[in-house]
Amino acid sequence: MLPKLCLPIFRIFRYRRFTNLEKKRHTLLNQTKMKTNQNNSHETIATGTSDSRPAVETPTTLPRPHSTGDEKLTGSPPDQGAAKKRRQQILAAAAALIVALAAGVYYFWFVLPYESTDNAFIEGNVIPMSSQVPGRVAELLVKDNQAVKQGDVILKIDPRDYEASLAQARADLAAARSRVEQAKAQVNASQAKVAQALAGAVAADAENQRAADDLKRYQSVDSTAVSKSAFDAAQSQARAASANLEAAHSQVKAAIADVTLCEAGVETANAAVKQAEAKLQQAELNLSYTQVTAPEDGHVTRRVVEKGAYIQPGQSLMAIVPRRYWVIANFKETQLTRMRVGQPVEVVVDAYPDHKFKGVVESIQSGAGARFSLFPPENATGNYIKVVQRVPVKIVLDDTPESELALGPGMSVDPRVRVK
Q1: DSSP three-state, residue 400
Q2: What is the pLDDT of residue 50?
Q3: Distance CA 110, CA 123 (A)
Q4: Is 291:284 a contact under the CB 8 Å cutoff?
Q5: Phi and psi based region of residue 94 (left: phi greater than 0; alpha: psi -120 to 50; beta: remaining)
Q6: Can you tell me the distance from the alpha carbon of 5 to that of 35, in angstroms, rounded to the nearest whole number?
Q7: Cβ–Cβ under 8 Å, residues 357 and 345
Q8: What gap in Å lies between CA 414 and CA 184, rounded to an integer?
């Protein structure tokens, strides 16, 4: 586009230069002709009319110098210097015009519609890895910066202690279940005793009723018809039968209470079974924790553990960095005038300037970054100097970067947000 715009300008400058050169050439020719005529006049006066030699006719025109394309003049050196100087000025003005035109096009097309900053960095999740059980590292299956998949085993802890705990938990569960069966058998025996006590109570009640009837018959007849000993014996039997009935009732109550106690023992045994099952499950979990696996796809970073080291729960072993990245760009607050959520972004990573990533503005933080720092500024004290604040803007990438690119949190980028 620029050559097409500049072609008429060059033609105008070339035409003006050629016109000026032609005018200069005609002026020099006229001056030369006048000098020649004056010289001829003086010679004629000096020699008189006796000179019979014919006067030499002065040519009226000079031969035109051969054109070299640039129309160079054969004038004096000062004239040539002035023409050269004017030619340089014209070329400088043309070059300045071209540069200004190019700068204007570049500004209105590539600068004005965009907002950019170099205060921007890649962010991503960093998952610290640690063990949930103590133990000695038996195997280390990853290296620094190695790519891992979700579920891959990255290290193993010596499992022998946890295998023994698992076997003990299984034995405790079996014992608890046997105690449940024993408690249930005791319940059955207690229920049988209740039935026996009820039967004894029925027999005692019948014996008590017979003895009471005999005593009534003895009491209903004349005292002279029954001996004193027989009457006393009837009374004794009636009292004994009544006591036996009371004892039978007590035995029934005791048998029922024993049944209740045995049923409570069954509940206790069932609770012991559940406790043993929980311990067994915990033992199985502890055994599974001896294999530390990767929670997500990513790369191993900051590995500080080695084979044979004794580790504790919660101790930092390494970190997994998933390949999910976004950009946090700290724009000046004066750059947010036309910035909106959803605007397209072009991101260039400093490490890979030939790769351009496409993204979009996802969110703009509600507040400057300084306000959320550890020691926010206190502008109400002392002298105040206004400083342009930075506001974090989150930019998400449209596509996942190629796996061959060594990207990671903290790397510098240059985002350009199209705001118009």
Answers
A1: coil
A2: 41
A3: 27
A4: no
A5: alpha
A6: 47
A7: no
A8: 76
Ramachandran class of 151: left when φ > 0, alpha when ψ lies in -120 to 50, beta otherwise: left
Full strand arrangement of the beta sheet holding 147-148: 127-130, 316-321, 298-301, 147-148
Question: Which segments of 48-147 does DSSP mark as H helices, in order?
Answer: 77-106
**Contact by Cβ (8 Å): 359, 327:** yes
Tokens 């079974």 belong to: 273
According to DSSP, the residues that pair with 415 across neighbouring strands are: 347
**What span, in angstroms and rounded, lies between the C-alpha atoms of 401 and 225?**
124
Tokens standing for 221?
Answer: 């007849």
231: helix, strand or coil: helix
Secondary structure percentages of the chain, helix, strand, coil, to 5: 50, 20, 30
Task: Determine contact, residues 332/388, Cβ cutoff 8 Å.
Answer: yes
Give whole-number Cα distances, 182 to 170, 176, 367, in Å: 19, 10, 70
Question: Any idea which residue has 């009374």 for tokens?
Answer: 235
H or E element, residue 140:
strand 135-140
Contact 162, 290 (CB under 8 A): yes
The token duo for 133 is 């059980």
Q: What residues in the chain have per-residue pLDDT under 50?
A: 1-7, 10, 43-75
Number of neighbouring beta carbons within 10 Å of residue 332: 13
Residue 122 burial (CB < 10 Å; 0-12/13-18/19+)? buried
CA terminus-to-terminus distance, the chain: 23
Select from 416, 414, 259 the least CA-distant residue to 351.
414
The amino acid at residue 61 is: T
Q: List, for residues 333-379, the tens digit of each pLDDT value.
A: 999 999 999 999 999 999 999 889 999 999 999 999 998 988 888 88
The residue type found at 176 is: A
Number of Cβ within 10 Å of residue 417's Cβ equals 26
| Paired tokens of 155 | 């290290």
Both tokens assigned to 140: 């280390």
What is the DSSP pairing of strand 316-321 with strand 127-130? antiparallel
Count CA atoms within 13 Å of residue 51 on its CB side: 10
Whether the full predicted model's pTM is greater than 0.70, yes or no, is no
The whole-angstrom distance between residue 7's C-alpha and the CA centroid of its chain comes to: 54
Give CA–CA dist 339/216, Å, rounded.
114
Quote the Cα angle for 245-247-249, to 5°: 70
